[in-house]
Structures are given as structure tokens and as C-alpha cells.
Amino acid sequence: MADGLLDGRRGRVVTVFGAKGGVGKTTLAVNLSVALAKLQPEPVALLDLDLELGVAALFLGLEHKTSIIDVVRSPDPPAITMEWAMGEAYGVRVLPAPPNPDVAPEVEGDGKIDPNRNYVEEIIEEARRQARWVVLDTGSNFREAAMTALDFGRPVFLLTTGEVPTLRNTGRVLDVLTTQLRYDENNLRVILSHCLQADRQKAQVVAGALDFPVWREIPYDGPAAVEAANTGVPVVVGRPRSPITKAVWDIAQALIAEVEEENKESMASGSKAVQAPKERGG
Ligand SMILES: Nc1ncnc2c1ncn2[C@@H]1O[C@H](COP(=O)(O)OP(=O)(O)OP(=O)(O)O)[C@@H](O)[C@H]1O
Ligand SMILES: [Mg+2]
Predict the structure, then answer these.
(1) Bond from prior residue into 98 cis (ω within 30 degrees of 0)
(2) Which residue, judged by its Cα, is nearest atom 19 of ligand 1?
(3) Which residues line ligand 1 (CB under 6 A)?
(4) Which atom of ligand 1 is nearest to the CA of 218?
(5) In terms of Cα–Cα distance, which of 238, 239, 251 is closest to 33?
(6) How remote is the CA of residue 28 from the centroid of ligand 2, in Å?
(7) DSSP for 36-96?
(8) 12-281 has which fold?
């Protein structure tokens, strides 16, 4: 990662968001990052933007001493500080969330050293210079870090489960994103997590309830998910036969195929940009 992307292109940002806690955002963000690192040779970065309670590093068995707060507090630009602040696990470069929730306002709130800077935006931009894939794990809120992550995501994964309260919130979030914030609907992908394999109709029911297509399902596999969280060995590594692994693998392959397709098109049209800087949506 130290050398950055030598061809000068910017990395592709994939944002994992959810309308409610516990829907499997971190599980997807972590496993997708590892799958991308295994499936293709270019650098992958995972930024934990769940600033209050993020545990992405722990999911990767990283007991890391530095975090995003060190990048924000340093007088040096992120290009220098991220180099030493990030850890590495399973081929993924990881920028952990702060160790304690009380310092989160220094990154995105009223504790910012410079209130006019969007530190999260600067950090994402730097990660895009260094990695081909930048996966963003988020908290379930609409504060600056999450809003910035939503702006950069291409695509944005909106995780939901099939439970009524979660569906209600997912519907509200879809409404805010598409109606009020005018995000491109094609850039939003609803993923149904914790999906019981016996319940084959669930995706259709959920899509009907949300009036929005379900792009992929991540099956329920409690033992694999719990083991992964407790051991710090991601499901895609420790449980290759879990249905979660199969689903994440499929999502990673779909993303890679999309980017390859876009690169072919942009080569044909003479453009070098994988993703134009700071564009919203498609
Ligand atoms: N597909 C799955 N099947 C079964 N359990 C799962 C699955 N995905 C995640 N879990 C479990 O659900 C819990 C929440 O998962 P995770 O931490 O990934 O969600 P989250 O949306 O990031 O939560 P938070 O909002 O707290 O950050 C964890 O105990 C995890 O092991
Ligand atoms: Mg999480």
C-alpha cells in the first residue's frame, strides 16, 4: 500500500450501511474486504467509520494501537499518517475506529480541531490514492462520517434483515436517500442478511415491503458468525463452506466484474478514471 496506485487512478469505494444496528454491516465489510484481497492482486483498504463503537479491526484479529483518531490529531496530512496508523490482516489494510467512543466528536463532531475540515473525506480520498478497493464500514446514523461514506460509495450496500422494525427503518432510510437526498437508485443495493434458507420467499416479501429490489441475500449462519467474531478469523477464511462465505464471494466477484466492465468501457472511450472524485451515486 505504501507505493499507492502507480497508474494514478483512484480506488473504488464500497460503502456498507444499514438502518439499524446488528444487521451484519461489519460482517459484510470485513469479509468482503478479505474476499477482494484474495480474488484480485491490487491493494484493498478497510476504513472503520463506525466511529463510536467500531470493531472491524477486532473482526480481523487486529489488536491495533493506532486508529483514525491518530490520523485526525496529527498535524501531518493523512498521506503521511495513514501509512503508520493502519494495520494489516489477511491482505487488507485496516484503519481502525477510535478506541473509545468519547473521542468520536474529534473526527466528525463539535470536537473537531478544525471545524471546517471533513477529516473523513480527506481520509477516504487518501485511501483511494493508495488502494484499488476501499471498503467503508459505518455506524447506523446520519452524521458526517456516514453521510460522507454514502457520498463516496459506489455502490452503497444497504443491509437489512427481514424483521419488521428493521424493515421499517430500512424503508425510511431508502426514502431519505432517494427522495430527500436524491441518491441514484441504481447505486443503492439492498442486501438481505440473516436470511434463513428455509424461507425461500423472504427476498420477494422484503422487496415488496420496501418497494425496492433485493440485490443479494446473505444466509443466516449463527455458529460461523459467532465463531468468527469471537476468534477474529473472518468467516471467508475460517469457514469456507459457510453459506455466508459463498454469498460474500459472489458479491466480491460481482463487484470485480462490474469494475472490469467499466474499465473496458472507459478504455474504449479514452478515460482513465475508475471513479471520478467525490461523485455521488452512479
Ligand atoms: N449472516 C449472518 N448469520 C448469522 N449471524 C450473523 C450474520 N451476520 C452477522 N451475524 C451476527 O450478527 C451480529 C451483528 O453482526 P455485525 O456486527 O456484523 O452487525 P453490524 O450491523 O455491524 O452491527 P453494529 O450496528 O453493532 O455495528 C454479530 O453477532 C454477528 O456475528
Ligand atoms: Mg458494525
Answers:
(1) no
(2) 24
(3) 18, 21-27, 50, 140, 193-194, 218, 220-222, 225-226, 229, 244
(4) 1
(5) 251
(6) 9
(7) HHHHSSS-EEEEEE-TTT--HHHHTT---S--HHHHHHSSS-HHHHHHHH-EEETTEEEEP
(8) Rossmann fold (3.40.50)
**Helix (H) and strand (E) counts in the chain:** 12, 8
Per-residue pLDDT of the chain (282 residues; tens, 9 = 90+): 445 666 778 999 999 999 999 999 999 999 999 999 999 999 999 999 999 999 999 999 998 789 999 999 999 999 999 999 999 999 999 999 999 999 999 999 999 999 999 999 999 999 999 999 999 999 999 999 999 999 999 999 999 999 999 999 999 999 999 999 999 999 999 999 998 877 778 889 999 999 999 999 999 999 999 999 999 999 999 999 999 999 999 999 999 999 999 888 888 887 555 555 455 443
- Identify the residue whose C-alpha is closest to ligand 1 atom 14: 22
Which numbered atom of ligand 1 lies nearest the CA of 18? Answer: 21
- What's the gap in Å between 2 CA and the centre of ligand 1? 32
> Relative to the CA of 137, which ligand 1 atom is closest?
22
Q: Which sequence spans correspond to the domains of the chain?
A: 12-281
